[in-house]
Batch of 3 targets.
Target 1
Amino acid sequence: MKNLVEVKNIKKNYGKNEAVKGISFNIKEDEILGLLGPNGSGKTTTIGMLLGLLKPTSGEILINGQKLEGNRIEILEQINFISPYIELPKKLTVKQNLTVYGKLYKINNINERIEFLSEKLRLEDLLNNITGELSSGQKNRVSLAKALINEPKVLLLDEPTASLDPEVGDFVRSFLEDYKKEKKISILLASHNMNEVTRLCKSILMMKDGIIIDEGNPKELINKHGRKNLEEVFLKLSRSRNELN
Amino acid sequence: MYGLFLRHFYLITRSFPRVLDLVYWPTIQITLWGFISNFFATHTTYYNNAVGVILTCAILYDFLFRTSIGFNMLFLEEIWSRNFTNLFIAPMKIGEILTSLVATALIRALIGLIPAVLLTSPLFGISILDLGIFLFFLFLSLYLFGITLGILVSAGLLRYGPSFENIAWSTMFLLAPFGCIYYPIEILPEMFQKIAYLLPLVYIFEEARNILINQTVDIQNIYYAFMWNGVYFVLSIALFYYSFNVAKNKGTLINMGE
């Protein structure tokens, strides 16, 4: 499997504060990589750099073999992002929002694409509803539809199921598993839901204070640290001094 | 009670744009109305057709105001709706974002302007069309300056984040005293005149009054207005690109909703 995302020793400084201190990782196609870490560990900064919203102080990011630096627009056509901290315009209907983003991503058959995503994400009956009047679970599925409007090769997910009820959360997780398998895309999943990470990810990066302090698949990490589950591993690593230091 | 006071006090002291906002509103209002009062007190016979000239200038100024605020509103609405990040991760060049905002701002301004123009005739017996073919050049010049201000404010929002919002609302008022909208430039103190001559506004409003009062056209005024507009427009574009790069370094683009 080829690497769709290659991150090579990226650093990000805000003045004297080193938010990310030189991390490297790859994400293969048809892979979901979990990005774990306590608040302030550098996860959002890392995602910001992958989206081209933040310029790394040093290091290099390649998406599908292309350097992000200097090819931002071409790369943005191939990636997308979902986060509970960003929303779609509330006054527009679901269909209007998806049409706007279909146009921004220069999708040829927007109606067909919207129809396909609505069916997959159970949005058919919501297309003419005002986005701001939807429930959290419905908004989440609309945001997911927006994030898939351009058939991204790389999908960045920041807490994709935060604040969702268990049923909707399970639906979203199942959808992501199936979609990844079908389209062979790469997904970076930043989450604090350890069950979700255990279920979806074959590989995990643990970040703390701007560095990767451990990595591996969930079972390996649980065994390595002699804990019962990933949540306990997370707590151990978050409370300890940096493992690799 | 003290806690609530502290909550707002901390907010103000943490943000320079908020402090600036508190200081300059009273200053601008006093300055603008001071010059207007001074002019009418000393030049009572200047306007033979006072209502027509004042209303025409008011419509022109409103067009400028709508264009500038319209541009800023488009940008601010993306911040308020927390859609800003979605927009900046879409595969759009900065030039494409600016072009679409510029075109949308024009449509918004025209929607506001047309009813105002149509109302002046039946209500006051005045038509802004009295300015003739040169009306087009005056509007074009005002539109250029309006979007230039809009781009400058948007560059500030990119650079400083939402706390720059207050500046967005007040740029037009800041420039109004120097724009000589309702009075000729001679009414300003010499120092202010020097500043006013560096802005396209003074040439636009001087020319509007010249056409309406003297029934003549001074092409030089229109030329200077376009020249200064060109200078500021190029500067605003450069500043927007610069602010975008600064925002990418400072992380403003991912924290815009905060």
Target 2
Amino acid sequence: MSLDPVVLFFVFGLLAGLLKSELKLPPALYETLSIILLLAIGLHGGVELAEQASWQLLGQAAWVLGLGVALPLLAFAVLRGLGFDRVNAAAVAAHYGSVSAGTFAVVVAYMLAKGIEFESYMPLFVAILEIPAILVGILLAKGIARDTDWGELGREIFLGKSIMLLLGGLIIGAIAGKEAIKPLEPFYTSMFKPVLALFLLEMGLIASGQLGSLKQFGLRLLGFALLMPLFGALIGALLGRFMGLSLGGTAVLATLAASASYIAVPAALRLALPEANPSLSLTASLGITFPFNIIVGIPLYLMLAEQLMAWGL
Amino acid sequence: MDAHIRTLLTVICEAALEKKLVVDLEQLGAPGWTISDARGRGGRGVRSAGWDTEGNIRVEIICTRDIAERIAGHLQARYYANYAMVCYLAQVEVLRAEKF
């Protein structure tokens, strides 16, 4: 199994960080790269969405929404079983029910490199999956408590950076259509991989910082952060088959279900659920699950999708 | 030089709190404030500012002793339990008393 060069950038960042190298990218660059990636993903999805909008897609979107509710519930049950207290279990579950756009970008690059087609409206599913887990997580932690400021929380969730960029890109792409978007195409064609490579270099550096705090939490968290993506991927892949997605689409949905958020959810939960320990969730999602998914997981999920199809599912 | 005594309240806390804090300051009658990004280390470990949720901010407010104490009391009651936050008061001299 040969690693995609963009993933090697991640490994490079990880090693540089672990060796305590002086290498550091300016924070503004990371911001810029993630903005470009999210817009690119949105734009590409929007262009395709305009061509393929259908009632069937609406049904699929509803199933994906259901997935976004089911995953945090499952994660919560597993975490409680592992002995985590209720609030922290709910917070970590919210991260694992939601998605990572960075992981999505890597799976897109992987599919393109392998020449495997997938439903190009997938970015819509990224946006859909990002939200419900946060709400489920908060409800799991404290029920419908009065002191939750739902208005403020709603703003934080729906107007958060990643959702805005994804939806903005989707809508611009859908309005513009294939012809008009041509001059902007480099966003998701020739520019995509170089930007992703730099983004992953920074992610490697950040992930290495998170690994340091793993000692504090021990094997339970490590076990969860490695097993939960596998569970998630299986459920995502089965749903993909059920929805009649292509091979690529099934693998991408499995990857989405396997991924854990590290941007939108931590920001929202820090305000909505301050009792939860933020570094517990971030260590798991950023320090373990993200590296696992992009290095080992994605090829594995593609094999899973192939296997399911071979069994005629 | 005609100097007047005022209180400088400095708050160092998680960047995630910025929006909430600004609303609080407005309500509690702070005449003005200055916010800057910060990083460092304290009771809750290293705050490296390497990640969105890991950054700190430093808020500086120059006001009367009364208001400074009211703000500090509010912060302690509302945020100390669950957030990384410290605040301290100091006496400073200002030139234009009416501004603070």
Target 3
Amino acid sequence: MAQGLSKRIKSLQFAFLSPDEIRRMSAIKIITADTYDDDGFPIEMGLMDLHLGVIEPNLRCRTCGGRVNECPGHFGIIELAMPVIHVGYAKEIKRLLQSTCRACGRRLPDAPSSRGDSSAEPEDGAPRTRGPKEERSCPFCHEIQQRILLDKPTTFRENGHKITPKEVRARLERIPDADVRDLGLNPKFGRPEWMVLTVLPVPPVQVRPSITLESGERSEDDLTHKLVDVLRINQRLRENRDMGAPQLVVEDLWELLQYHITTYFDNQTSGIPPARHRSGRPLKTLAQRLKGKDGRFRSNLSGKRVNFSARTVISPDPLLSINEVGIPMEVARGLTVPLEITAHNLEAAKELVRRGPSPPPTEEGRYRCGVNYLVREDGQRIKVMEKNADACAELVTPGGIVERQLIDGDIVLFNRQPSLHRMSMMAHFVRILPNKTFRFNLCDCPPYNADFDGDEMNLHVLQSQEARAEAKVLMKVEEHILSPRYGGPIIGMLHDHITAAFLLTYQNPTFTMSEVAYLLSKLNYPTPPPAGTDKNGRPYWTGKQLFSLTLPRDLTLEFRSNIWSKGDDASPGSKADSTVIIENGILKAGTIDKKAIAFEKGAILDDIARNYGMARARQFLDEMSRLAITAIGLKGLSTGIDDEDVPEGAQKEIAKALESARVKVNELVAQYKNGELEQMPGRSLEETLEVMVRRELGMARDQAGEIAGRYLGLENPAVILAKSGARGSMLNLTQMAGAVGQQSVRGERLLRGYYDRTLPHFARGDLGADSRGFVSSNYKHGLSPTEYFFHSMGGRESLVDTAVRTSRSGYMQRRLINALEDLKVVDDGTVRNTAGTIIEYLYGEDGIDPTRSYQGHAVAVDEILARVLGRLVRPGAAEGGGAGGAGPPPVAEEEMDLQAEALAEEETEEEETEDVGTPEEGGEFGGE
Amino acid sequence: MPEEKGARETLATRIEEIAKDEGIRFPPSLASELREKISRLRLTPAETTRAVRAVAQRFAKAEVDAHESVGIIAAQSIGEPGTQMTLRTFHYAGVAEMNVTLGLPRLIELVDARRVPSTPMMTVYVDPKLRKDRDAVQKIALQIEVTTVPDIATIGTVVEELKVVITPQAALLKARGITRDHLERALTEGVDTRLFELRPGSGSGESRSFAIHLKERAEPTTRSKKDEPVEEMPFRKLLLASEEAKGIQIQGVPGIKRALIRREKDEYVIYTEGSNLEKVLEVPGVDGARTTTNSVFEIYRVYGVEAARVALVREANRTLAEQGLGVDIRHLMLVSDVMTNEGDIRAIGRHGISGKKTSVLARAAFEITAAHLLHAAITGETDELKGVAENIIVGQPITLGTGAVNLVYRPGHPETVERSREEAA
């Protein structure tokens, strides 16, 4: 393997190939339009001539003598009987013809000096005024100039008469070098006449390999097909011309040759029919190979397929660290790490090789790594097998490489598509585990946006020391706890963790000795002294006490829980228990929920990551997930449909509220029909009615929810889930227990369907609640058929939305990345692009890395002041004044938003189940 | 209070000095925050030194690393939440009566640098003297909002008499603050006198109607191909007259379809549908310093690029914040800076920044591959392989982050030996 300094391409020069150069680089002249003879041997001077390179084993290249994998391929040449225009340059040729004299080739004085860029158009957008159509004459030879038109794609006309490519070429030849330069071309890298082809290079066979079908039949590449066409017509054209055939025949053939060469370059040229295969499929010629998403550039050059990678289904494992990934043994055996053999590890390496590719497990039944390949000093690669393991071990010498299977502690990259941000690919440490899925800690779900409904993920094994070092320092999961997007944690607790933390800390439950023993069994902490003894004299511990174990010793913090609501008593020990007070690592009061430990929001997590470092944050997350999972195992939480039961009295009350809303709506409609409705400013009468009806029905829905909510307290598991922020919202519960509410399409009450009505069940022109999509039933009791239909109308819209959105936002991101990818902060602190242009004098106006910022602020001043002074600086006092921070302005919440929110919640759910089969994944990795 | 002012200044220089000792220069916002907090908490000089030093040290830790690929991070930070945004075009902003494009479509619109937003909107503030007076603000709103003839009058066509009758509605006139004379002036100006003639109609007072009659011998307006005048059918001309009357604008700023006033804290603010910053600023009573629009291009035209940059940041930030997505403002600033770097607003994409990249390969890899390659050959371009996409294509390390630096170790080289000896000593 090449070590040390590596070569680097400094620049690439683009230029035309001159006919001479094409001849010089060609290995052979192609004259026969055939490929193989009856024996399947390449015909000499045919398109598959052995001088062009070899693609079959057991043959040697006639040019370089190389075998299949040694010969790089060589170009051939077709001498064209008559010159032909290159389609890609037709426009440029037209410009040159227009701006030079038709007789002497000198540049005409009024010709634009270079290409007329569209941006050069006058600012006011007025069309460029063309001079009067007077006759121009050349100032050098006084030849009167004619108007030149390009009859797309490749025919030039002068005053209606066709100019042959030959004549075009002759004219271009006459342009002197100095004028070529003035016209914006560089004669050093290409004379204009080279845009008219006289010879055609034939690409090596490696570029257009023929494939042998199962039937033994040979199938040629599209390019070969096209070249056959070119050769055939070229031959006929030459014969006819030499025989002195009628001008018309020659011209027809010439045009046909032009067509074939045009489509050889680009088979999607507008104005001509694409060349087709016998089956009717258009041929994929040169331009098509490069273009688009599956073209060479985007598919093979900007992204490449790699070795040392694996993919399988993922599943959770709360006992793993967030930095780890569980890997099935089968995968571990297939992935290797190169181990360089030195004098120091020679014996160990030999021992390793002796084990072979599948060593038996250790006595405890644990996996042991083996060796798949041995690379000797001279580059020879030997596959290590059970049989030759001992023999291979003898071949292990310093300077060679042993390709060792994965072991615990190896560092690998782990990735889930779509890779929308850098946290989509992070480095994990390997843990070889039984069973066949990749496993990781649940806290890693948010950055990958993963769940376990069948998602698959990819894994890559690093192959060099540099790569491993970089991965360890920059890509480890713990290095990405804080997101560069908003300067807060993106890795944190979710779902059950939050419920568990809530159950552990809300109103401080007590635990017996055996319970504590169980709870702490997964943690490496000594049992703390009991908080007290119960009336039977048995010691007990409190939940808050146990939670405090995971906190850093000197952490001091105060904030409001997610369950906090206005008017809650903030004093410690209050019934609401919604103000968290942590002093010196002890949770004194408050409930731990979403606001404390969840990703994006968690205040404790944020503080630890920022002030105690990433390693401490990782430790906190690891321990917290263990504690949470054991705690919820101990306490338990079940929710079912009967959690949304409300007493009959309440149901009646809800029905009454909905009925009165219905009456009110009818009143509004009546007012509208009688013309008594007062028009709102800037709204039509119809719009006014709609706004008022929607407001009325929104209120009715909320009222129903409020009535139902009275019977849903914090003892209800479903409510615990919603209020602690673990999953779901109160709105979801309202819709289950109270009423689902108004359905909408494009933000309006439903109105499509039949003439003047949504369904034939209703009277024409009925503007009432029920006929326009108000669902007064709830999910628990079930929807009526009409309601069900309306609900699916609203549901359909959100499905369409997500489908459209993914593609739209994907394209936006691609454009953003493309526009910004080259920007970096250089040594002097400025942001520059590749051209060296300064984009920003100081990054972000303060030079602060958003990842390390405090929610966007350069420094958390209050926090530091408090630390330095040793007293709490109430941020409340600083409110209003202060940082001039660009915090998001509070947004007025509209009634309709709630509905949208509820739909969004549902959406995510459904979105995620669909994830498995998204074209992104299928396309990139499935379609092999 | 000159004393206090002096104290503030000394504190400011004090903070600056301490920071300087730590090798830091605070941005103005942070410096003023510190100043304000230190004086409010009445810190002793010793405490001040400790506090400022601690802040400076923390600041130094939070600075960006050299060669950080801030561009890609910004693009990802804006692009990634795109998948979470709503697509609903119509939403209700502060004013319930108005529709505004928000969410992903709005973000795409900003990044595309569209000349006209799909829902242009202005927030017009009023001079301090008038802003608390509802009636005065309402008056200004009426002056801004476009009023056309159908807004204040009914238009009827009498075919047998070949005339269009325009009857002003007294109530509507009053609501819009327009007199009949006003309307008459607008009509006289607006009606094509070559074809029509304006005459007073029936009725009396303010609601006396106008009639547009066809001229007996009108000059022909359309000509046939052979340049002969073509006499149009009278009823077609009548239709023309009616259409023309409908389009006549009596007052208001062109482009402002609607103006609504809304109470905001202790003042009245005008929100408009449609935008015309240049002309609205000319309306007397408008507070030019605070009045703004969501059309970035108008801001560019009236105030220049720097203002446009700020407008882009503000609009993008607002769009994202409205969706409840936190995105650091630095990312938005970077995007806006890139868009406005050349002195005008360029779109993110093929026609803007990506199309103007220096590297041929990077352009080819983005869009319209073949055209870029062919063009490169014509002009004999050189690709210097400095960017990311190019280097990936040729298969070598990119020039960002760890790829931007090189380490050279020369074992046995005199210099290396010398240095290690020094270190040992």
